[in-house]
Structure formats: C-alpha cells, structure tokens
Amino acid sequence: MSLLGRAFDQWRSFRNGLLASPRFQKFAVDFPLFRPISRQRSRQLFDLLAGFTYSQVLYCTVKLGLIEMLEGHPLPTSAIAARIGWPADRTERLLKAAISLKILERTSAGEVTLGIHGAALAGNPWIARFITHHSLLYADLADPIGVLSGTKKQNHLKDFWSYADQRNAADYTALMAASQEAVAAEILAAYDFSRHTHLIDIGGSNGTFLKAAAQRYPQLKLSLFDLPKVAEIARANLGNRFEIHGGSFLDDELPKGPDVATLIRIAHDHDDASVKTLLAAVARMLSPGGTLILAEPLSGLAATAPVADAYFGLYFAAMGQGRTRTPDEIGRMAKDAGFASIEVVATRNPVVSGMLRLTMP
C-alpha cells in the first residue's frame, strides 16, 4: 500500500469518527461556519432514506400523463383532478410532491406547469418508457435483501428479460428501441466510423442504431445480428439496405466480413462466462486490426458510480443476470479473447453511455 493510500485511510478513519460523534454533530450544527456543511450532509442522508418515495412520485406523474397534459398548457389543480379522476385533495398532495422535486412548478397565477425535470422528460420521451417499466423493478424490490442475496428466485424483471425462450421479444425490443436513439447519438458523436467499411451491430435489437449510422455514413456496409425473433423485427423495420442475421452469439458463429463491430448495452446483461464467450466470438469474426466498440454504463467511474453501481447493480440483481464492469475488468476478458488493446473513449454524456474501443492485433 502506498504512503498516500495509508494517509487517506487514516484520514477516513478520523473523519468517520468525527461524523459518528454526537458531540461533534452538535458542534457542527451550532458553529456558523460548519452549519451549511452539516445541513447539506443531513439533506444528502435524508435523500438516501427518501429516494424510493421520490421515484414513486416520478412514476405517478408519468403514469398519469401529467407531463403530456401540462406541456405548454398550465392548468389549475381542479382541472388536473378532473382529468385524472382524483379528488382535489389527493391531487394536490401529488402535485405538491412533484413540485418539491422540480418535476412540476406553479406559475405566477397559481396554475401547475412543467418544472425543469418535467420539461427534460417532455424532450426525452424514451425516459418515460423506462419509468413506467420500473413498476416491475419496484415490485421485485419489495424484498431488496432477497434480490441482492439471490434468495428471491421469482422476479418480474427476470421473467420480462427472458432471452432464452424469446417469449417477450417484441416487448423488450420496443423498450430498448425507446432509448436507443439517445445512445446512438452518443456513440456516433464519440467515434468516427468513416475509417471502416463494414459495421455489424451485435444484439442490434430493431436496428435503431444502424438507422442512425446509415444516415451519418451512407457508404458504410451495415449488418445486424440478434436472436431470431428479434431479427425478424429488425428485418421488418430496416428493409433491404441492411444485412440481417438471426442467431445466438453464445452458440453460433458470427458472420465474417465486418471490420468493426458494436456491442451496445449487451455485455452488462450477461455473466462473466457469457461475456468471455461473446468477446471470443467477436474476436474470431474480426479480421486483423478490426475494432469492437462496446458501449454501456461503466463501473469504476466516480461521475457515474450511482448509475452504474447502485441503479444497475440492483436492476441486474432483480433481472437475475448481468453486472456493470470496470474498463479493466472488460480489458482483461478482452485480452484473453484475443484483443490487443483497449481504451476508454470519452462520450458527451457518460450517464447515457460509456464507451470502450477494443482492437485486434
């Protein structure tokens, strides 16, 4: 352990001792210079306690259609209550909660309109799809210890993401497609595909990313590989401009020819053994010097740690498979699969997607 590491460990121990001391807590709130810090820490701790209720307010706001209802059309509480069929006092309770979270706001006339978060939701309707989808996650998290420990076996999310029998293929493909435009924009802004001749999107869902790539790079040959039922959906969506291949990347060989492949929010859905199998299949497919672009939330980055490790950590636990990984973890598996190098590619908004570039020797 380095001297710097030891020094930080000692500081952490000292800090935690102070923060746990009732005497210091009283001093911090009484002392004017420390009082703002004490208030901020109290608020942050309470947000951890109350976060579940915040997400439920957001869910109700979206589920009841308040974002669409109030976009450009402020309404009084009575009109909102009439539209959703709730008593006025119950409606007011929800509106006050949403206003406190900046999902909604009141106008100078006392009507209700969108707040900063509500306006952002109106501009990104795909987020609303995931918010309503979270009813499955909320049901599973009624037993969070069972979900995290693995003792809870019957989970709604596990049933929804049933890749093995593809019984929910249309539903999960539609859900993924809802957010794919935002992810595609991040990938295409961060990486120049013009250096390549043939791109294959592995696990490409309904082809939303490939459509965006086709607009940016009209000369690029484009292929998609996904499970047979998903490939049928992609074929209907994409038409003759694209090559569509149905199969399992865990069991079947990937089609030869592409010099660049993309894995967009695929690896984190699977366990380590499956990811190793997948990376090895991609390495066998690519020619020397070929490139793999892997885009998904990455663990180990301070800026996105709550997203990658808290949100996705519990989501994948309820899903029954998958986990977020650090670039180093993916890099070790990639090198075992035959890749020569791995680098982190900066994206404009790492909350939407992180990115890695893996290169064959």
Task: Report on this structure.
The structure is a single chain. This protein has 361 residues and is α/β, with parallel strands linked by helices. It has two domains: 31-123, Winged helix-like DNA-binding domain superfamily/Winged helix DNA-binding domain (Arc Repressor Mutant, subunit A, Orthogonal Bundle), CATH 1.10.10.10; 127-359, Vaccinia Virus protein VP39 (Rossmann fold, 3-Layer(aba) Sandwich). Helices cover 55% and strands 12% of the residues. The chain has a seven-stranded mixed β-sheet, sandwiched between helices. A two-stranded antiparallel sheet has the order 1-2. Helix 12 (208-216) links the parallel strand 3 and strand 4. Helix 3 packs across helix 8 (125-140), helix 5 crosses helix 6 (88-100) and helix 14 (272-285) crosses helix 16. The radius of gyration is 24 Å and the shape is globular. The mean pLDDT is 91.
**Helix fraction by DSSP (H/I, runs of at least 4):** 40-55%
Low-confidence sequence ranges: none
Which structural category do the helix and sheet elements fall into? alpha/beta
CATH superfamily of the largest domain: Vaccinia Virus protein VP39
Termini separation: 34 Å
**What's the story with the biggest beta sheet?**
7 strands, mixed
Order of helices and strands: HHHHHHEEHHHHHEHEHEEHEHHEE
Backbone CA Rg: 24 Å
Number of helices: 16
Question: What is the CATH-assigned architecture of the largest domain?
Answer: 3-Layer(aba) Sandwich
- Widest β-sheet, arrangement of strands: 5-4-3-6-7-9-8
Shape: globular
The pLDDT mean sits at 91
